[in-house]
């Protein structure tokens, strides 16, 4: 991927302070990626972000956008090429939602027809009905709706780059998660280059294609994919910043389709008790999975239950909470812990059995991830 | 009151735009017209008194319809002209000292305004009558000095109270600073600036009566005529008319605040 944004030796000194807020930062951001700047408060991540569109003017260093040095370019013209979303949203309270969203197209002098069409498109894009919301005022919207408008407004003139400063930080946890997911889905379509600031490592892991973990002075402690950051933290600072639960967080990134599934003894429910016992005898598992004629899992049955009288349809327990290949390992683990047999059934789109996830599968996956990350780390030194 | 942030009109307006209950327009008109109707009633009372009361010759000479009408008009001119001049001078100055590069000037300018207003109004009027010519012009200049601070301060406060993130997002989208001022900051500061204009104008109505001392005319001359001749009915009639004028100015500017306040606030 070609570089979209290049920061070279970028530095910000605030008058009256000895240490620079951002100290000779070098960072390259590839086209179409979401890069998260994450770090403890006061590390200079927001200052870094705001220097890219020169809301804060750098003291020294170079900013390149699409290969072009924009460090001295007209800042107003530069900013019209960069979408800007901040935590406080900053909608214009005296203007309607429609007028708010079309700010940049109007600055660029688009025709009224083009502006109207774009407004409809944008409102649909962020899931707001134009007829209902176009003529409302910001104070009539909820926090989540306002941030949707903020995102639509930043996307209005289809800029190649978006800067987002803790955009979901002021929302309640439920709205935040919904907007994060919506935004990731939106990004699948729009493929913007996004620089995103947060102090929340979990948000960084969820949202980022690449994470830059910053320490004081906006120095890069590690710049890598979330998987690698979690599996192979560069140093103690990164390890401490990730905090506990790194292994669980990593399971949130891997999907069931990425791991080798376990195989459980199965038997068609129509073949009767003897077949089920035979299947059980040939494996080390304590129970057998009964399938219907289209290989859809029906019941878990233990050996001692097979000894009991009665129809097979009523023995053991029903199979519940199946997962699909696209499910994350974290969710699979949750379903697994909740099941009676310590395993969760993986099915395809039609409900047919693909395999199972149990503790051994999870542990093997964690092992593989760790090895992969180390190998990748060795190949990519220096890691930027 | 001087900042207009606790203004009763602001409250009622918010309710109207937010809820828009049926018939709210009529309610609004009733509120807009109620005060003028009451003041008109008071004026009718004054006219009836002047026409039919048992007045002596001196009182008759001082209280003629023509004289009262001229005095009221001159009074309004004093206040109107000085307020307009202050708007033309103080609003741009307020904008100027609120620009980022001039922030350090703000306390100096507000301090000067404070000094101008803390001098007793009588002193200001007489001082400017001596400096300039006594009469209408000198009084207008004095009233300008006196009304300067409320409008200046409210312009500054009106611009400062704007959510800084609104300005930041406007700048971040590539609006020039002039455009941000024109399309974002000034509209958002309008309610506070107008509250300052209202305060200044109402104070102006009272202060303008002192202009009589320097021969500026207005209702003050009628009051002083009454004082010099010891005629209480004359003093009372002129005072009532001054009060009516002050209430009317306050009301009209209150309505203007409502009408000119941007929607969505």
UniProtKB/TrEMBL annotation, chain A:
<keyword id="KW-0547">Nucleotide-binding</keyword>
<dbReference type="InterPro" id="IPR027417">
    <property type="entry name" value="P-loop_NTPase"/>
</dbReference>
<feature type="domain" description="ABC transporter">
    <location>
        <begin position="5"/>
        <end position="241"/>
    </location>
</feature>
<dbReference type="InterPro" id="IPR005892">
    <property type="entry name" value="Gly-betaine_transp_ATP-bd"/>
</dbReference>
<keyword id="KW-0677">Repeat</keyword>
<dbReference type="GO" id="GO:0005524">
    <property type="term" value="F:ATP binding"/>
</dbReference>
<dbReference type="Pfam" id="PF00005">
    <property type="entry name" value="ABC_tran"/>
</dbReference>
<dbReference type="InterPro" id="IPR017871">
    <property type="entry name" value="ABC_transporter-like_CS"/>
</dbReference>
<dbReference type="InterPro" id="IPR000644">
    <property type="entry name" value="CBS_dom"/>
</dbReference>
<dbReference type="InterPro" id="IPR046342">
    <property type="entry name" value="CBS_dom_sf"/>
</dbReference>
<comment type="similarity">
    <text>Belongs to the ABC transporter superfamily.</text>
</comment>
<dbReference type="Pfam" id="PF00571">
    <property type="entry name" value="CBS"/>
</dbReference>
<dbReference type="InterPro" id="IPR003593">
    <property type="entry name" value="AAA+_ATPase"/>
</dbReference>
<keyword id="KW-0813">Transport</keyword>
<keyword id="KW-0067">ATP-binding</keyword>
<protein>
    <submittedName>
        <fullName>Betaine/proline/choline family ABC transporter ATP-binding protein</fullName>
    </submittedName>
</protein>
<dbReference type="InterPro" id="IPR003439">
    <property type="entry name" value="ABC_transporter-like_ATP-bd"/>
</dbReference>
């Amino acid at each position: 991927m070609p570089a979209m944004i290049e920061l070279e030796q970028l530095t910000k000194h605030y008058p009256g302070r000895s240490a620079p807020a951002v100290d000779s930062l070098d960072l390259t951001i590839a086209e179409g990626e979401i890069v998260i700047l994450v770090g403890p408060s006061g590390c200079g991540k927001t200052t870094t972000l705001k220097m890219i569109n020169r809301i804060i003017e750098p003291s020294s260093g170079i900013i390149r956008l699409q290969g072009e040095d924009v460090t001295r370019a007209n800042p107003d013209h530069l900013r019209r090429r960069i979408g800007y979303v901040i935590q406080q949203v900053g909608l214009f309270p005296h203007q309607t939602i429609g007028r708010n969203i079309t700010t940049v197209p109007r600055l660029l002098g688009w025709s009224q027809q083009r502006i109207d069409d774009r407004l409809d498109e944008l409102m649909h894009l962020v899931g707001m009905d134009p007829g209902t919301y176009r003529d409302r005022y910001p104070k009539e919207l909820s926090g989540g709706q306002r941030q949707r408008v903020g995102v639509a407004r930043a996307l209005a003139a289809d800029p190649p780059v978006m800067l987002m400063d803790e955009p979901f930080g002021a929302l309640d946890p439920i709205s935040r998660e919904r907007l994060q997911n919506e935004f990731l889905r939106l990004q699948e379509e729009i493929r913007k280059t996004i620089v995103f600031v947060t102090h929340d490592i979990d948000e960084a892991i969820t949202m980022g294609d690449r994470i830059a973990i910053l320490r004081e002075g906006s120095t890069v402690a590690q710049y890598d994919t979330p998987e690698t950051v979690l599996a192979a933290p560069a140093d103690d600072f990164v390890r401490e910043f990730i905090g506990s639960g790194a292994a669980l967080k990593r399971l949130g990134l891997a999907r069931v389709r990425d791991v080798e599934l376990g195989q459980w003894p199965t038997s068609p429910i129509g073949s009767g008790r003897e077949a089920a016992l035979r299947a059980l005898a040939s494996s080390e598992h304590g129970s057998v999975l009964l399938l219907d004629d289209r290989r859809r899992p029906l019941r878990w049955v233990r050996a001692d239950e097979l000894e009991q009288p009665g129809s097979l349809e009523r023995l053991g327990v029903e199979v519940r909470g199946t997962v699909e290949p696209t499910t994350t390992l974290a969710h699979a683990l949750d379903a697994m812990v909740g099941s009676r047999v310590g395993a969760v059934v993986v099915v395809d789109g039609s409900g047919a059995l693909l395999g199972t996830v149990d503790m051994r599968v999870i542990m093997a996956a964690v092992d593989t991830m760790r090895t992969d990350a180390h190998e990748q780390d060795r190949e990519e030194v220096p890691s930027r | 009151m001087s900042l207009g942030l606790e203004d009763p009109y602001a409250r009622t307006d918010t309710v109207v735009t937010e809820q828009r209950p049926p018939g709210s327009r009529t309610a609004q008109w009733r509120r807009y017209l109620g005060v003028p109707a009451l003041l008109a009633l008071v004026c009718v009372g004054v006219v009836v008194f002047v026409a039919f009361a048992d007045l002596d010759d001196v009182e008759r000479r001082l209280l003629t319809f023509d004289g009262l009408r001229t005095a009221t008009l001159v009074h309004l001119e004093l206040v109107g002209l000085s307020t307009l001049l202050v708007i033309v001078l103080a609003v741009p100055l307020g904008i100027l000292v609120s620009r980022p590069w001039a922030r350090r000037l703000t306390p100096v300018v507000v301090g000067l305004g404070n000094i101008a207003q803390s001098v007793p109004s009588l002193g200001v009027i007489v001082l400017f009558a001596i400096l300039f010519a006594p009469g209408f012009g000198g009084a207008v200049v004095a009233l300008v000095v006196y009304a300067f601070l409320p409008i200046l301060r409210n312009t500054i406060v009106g611009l400062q109270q704007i959510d800084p993130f609104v300005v930041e997002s406007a700048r971040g989208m590539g609006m020039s600073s002039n455009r941000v001022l024109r399309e974002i900051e000034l509209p958002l500061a309008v309610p506070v600036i107008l509250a300052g204009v209202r305060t200044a104008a109402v104070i102006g109505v009272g202060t303008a009566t002192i202009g009589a001392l320097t021969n500026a005319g207005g209702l003050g001359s009628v009051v002083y005529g009454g004082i010099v001749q010891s005629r209480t009915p004359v003093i009372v009639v002129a005072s009532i008319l001054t009060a009516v004028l002050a209430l009317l100015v306050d009301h009209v500017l209150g309505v203007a605040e409502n009408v000119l306040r941007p929607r969505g606030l």
